[in-house]
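Example record for the data management plan.
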Amino acid sequence: MKLLLVVACALIDADGRVLIAQRPEGKGMAGLWEFPGGKIEAGERPEQCLIRELKEELGIEVKEACLAPLTFASFAYDDFHLLMPLYICRRWEGLVQAHEHQALKWVKAQALRDYPMPPADEPLIPALMDLLSPVMPRS
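Corresponding structural encoding:
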């Protein structure tokens, strides 16, 4: 089975919301929501890929120091196995705009399950919920 290595990024805004992007018509899994990112090219590091993809897809500039690995997904589709590290990013330059997706939405981590996502993206949600959920004081 072919191994496909892709990288994704959870952009987090000042209100603690995560950016998700809708896959465009004509692509596999069109209409589903995903974290921005893409395929890692030969000789490319995951961070380099994200910097390139975020500029192409969203028109923003991200510095490597602003990318932090959070978790990863390993998922077997019918014809390939996907390995996808998820990074978080809280700082970037420019305005986020949809260059390749149908739509973009900023959502609270607790609402991510309300948006249909590819099966490989779903296991990433609990880590984001843990990271972004308010800490309850202990009594």
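Summary line stored alongside the record: DSSP finds two helices and seven strands in the chain.
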